[in-house]
Design brief:
This protein is an alpha/beta fold and 231 residues long. It has a single domain, classed as Rossmann fold (3-Layer(aba) Sandwich), CATH 3.40.50.1110. Helix content is 45%, strand content 12%. The chain contains nine helices and five strands. The chain has helices spanning 9-22, 27-30, 58-61, 71-81, 98-109, 123-127, 132-148, 166-183, 211-230; strands at 51-56, 87-92, 114-120, 152-156, 186-188. It has a five-stranded parallel β-sheet, with helices on both faces. Strand 4, helix 8 and strand 5 (186-188) form a beta-alpha-beta unit. Helix 4 (71-81) crosses helix 9, helix 5 packs parallel to helix 7 (132-148) and helix 7 runs parallel beside helix 8. It is globular. The protein starts with 8 loop residues before the first helix and ends with a helix.
Length: 231
C-alpha cells in the first residue's frame, strides 16, 4: 500500500511551538495516577456494516467536546455524504498511552467486519517521557495484530519538541514514518496540521482542538483515508 511520508515544514514548526507551550497544561494526563489503572473499554457498536475503528487517545475521544463534535462522528458524516457505507467506531480513551492501546486492541479487533484501523497513539508517551523504543514496539505490535486480522491501518504520526532533547526528538519523530514504511501502511504525518498554535481552533488548554479544530482534523484524516477506500 502506498505510504505518504510528507511533512510540511510550517506544520512541524507550528506543532513544536504549540507542544512546548502546552506541556504545563497537559499535566493532568502526565501525572494522573489513575491513567495507568484505567479499565479496558469496548467501543460502542451499533451496526453490522464494515467498520472503521478510530483508535487513540483524547484527540480521538473528542476530549472536552460533545460526541457530535468529535472527529470520528464528523468522519462518519463525510463518508455518508460521499456514499461510503462504513460505520466509524470511536475507540478513543483520554490519557491513553501506546501500552494502554496494546492492552485493549485485541478486544477491538475481535469485533465483526472491522476493515480499517486509524491508529492515533503516542502523544501521551511523549508527555510522560516514556521510552521511544518501547513506544515503537507497542505500535509495531498493534499494527501486526491488525494485519493478522486482515485489518488495514492508517497510522497517525506525532512530532517531539526540541525541549525533549535532540536524540529523543529525532528517535520519536522518526518512529512513526519508520513503522509506516516497514509495514507498508498508510501514513498521516501530522494529525494537527493547520490546527496547532491557532487559538481560535483550540480549547483553553492549548492542546485539544475545539469544535472548529475538530472539523479540520477530520478533513486531515479523511484525505489520508481516501486512498484506502478507493483501493
Amino acid at each position: 500500500m502506498h505510504v505518504v511520508i510528507r511533512i510540511s515544514l510550517v506544520a512541524s514548526f507550528v506543532f513544536l511551538v504549540a507542544f512546548g507551550a502546552a506541556c504545563d497544561a497537559a499535566r493532568t494526563f502526565r501525572d494522573d495516577p489513575a491513567a495507568a489503572n484505567r479499565p479496558l473499554q469496548l467501543p460502542k457498536v451499533t451496526g453490522k456494516q464494515p467498520k472503521i475503528i478510530a483508535f487513540g487517545d483524547s484527540l480521538t475521544a473528542g476530549f472536552g467536546l460533545a460526541e457530535k463534535e468529535s472527529y470520528p462522528y464528523l468522519l462518519q458524516e463525510k463518508l455518508k455524504a460521499d456514499g461510503h457505507d462504513y460505520e466509524v467506531i470511536n475507540a478513543g480513551v483520554s490519557g491513553d498511552t501506546t501500552l494502554g492501546g496494546l492492552e485493549r486492541i485485541d478486544w477491538v479487533l475481535e469485533q465483526e467486519n472491522v476493515e480499517i484501523l486509524i491508529l492515533e497513539l503516542g502523544a501521551n508517551d511523549l508527555l510522560r517521557g516514556l521510552s521511544v523504543p518501547r513506544m515503537k514496539s507497542n505500535l509495531d505490535q498493534m499494527i501486526r495484530k491488525a494485519k493478522a486480522n486482515n485489518v488495514r491501518v492508517l497510522l497517525c504520526g506525532m512530532l517531539a519538541p526540541p525541549t525533549m532533547g535532540s536524540e529523543y526528538q529525532r528517535e520519536y519523530t522518526a518512529a512513526f514514518p519508520d513503522l509506516a514504511s516497514e509495514h507498508k501502511v498508510e501514513f498521516l504525518p501530522f494529525l494537527l496540521d493547520n490546527i496547532a498554535l491557532r487559538k481560535e481552533l483550540n480549547q483553553a488548554d492549548g492542546i485539544h482542538p475545539n469544535a472548529e479544530g475538530e472539523k479540520i482534523m477530520a478533513d486531515n484524516i479523511y484525505r489520508a483515508l481516501k486512498p484506502m477506500l478507493e483501493s
